Amino acid sequence: MLLNAFEMANTECRLCGLKSPAAQLLTSQELEALEFNCAQINFKKGEIVFREGTFATNITYLKSGLVKIHMKGPARDKILRIMKSPSYLGLPTTFGEKVNHYSATALTDTQICFISLDTLRDFIFKNGGFAYENILELCRNELKDYQRYTNMSQKLLPGRLADILLCMSHELFNSNKFELPINYNELSDFISTSRESVSRLLGEFCKEGIISINKKELTILKEDILEKISLKG
DNA sequence: GCATTAACCACAG
DNA sequence: CTGTGGTTAATGC
Hints:
This protein has helices at 2-11, 28-36, 91-95, 117-126, 128-154, 157-173, 184-190, 195-207, 223-232, and strands at 38-43, 48-50, 58-64, 66-72, 77-84, 87-89, 103-106, 110-116, 177-179, 211-214, 217-220. By secondary structure, it is of the alpha+beta class.
């Protein structure tokens, strides 16, 4: 029984093929510590990983799948980011506050590892490479967010929509053809508009041959025009 | 004034 | 969940 538990531990974090860039810098002792202080939980599409307003007890690591980060606004939900793996979720809200300031919801079936806050804090104190990788990620994300939020607040609707489509194509899927990970209502929560406007505008983009949509699959046909629309605002 | 943009409502597949 | 039409308010020439 003891042996069994030990073997299980062995097959967890140390041999994990989906480590974060930061976790790749952990020593084998640290990985062993990680194994005893984390639990992988799989979520189905639509399930909530952690919820705004509840106690933040763990860091969550997105091992595979897509997750939306969103928070309640005065009027409606606001999607802040869509995260792909590998990525830690909720570092700011878990380290910075006791209570989650935003929610994370699975957009696809996902594998999530819950890691105890103390363990992660310990790594940060003791392993500079690990800490640096995490800071790097936080910095990159902050810059991207600032960029996106200034764009979102100053561009007209067509520019915002073009932006988000290009962003998904370039940063999320690395392809001109992808399955929309969110419905039109969520899309409107992302670019601060109404569901109807998203519907109308995507329809127009299709009519003009800039994109094509069947079912949920979206193809960007004329990226150059989309870029122009994005720039023009 | 007149045009444009886009939200809100209603209702239908 | 999505598509459309009507209405309305704000903003810009």
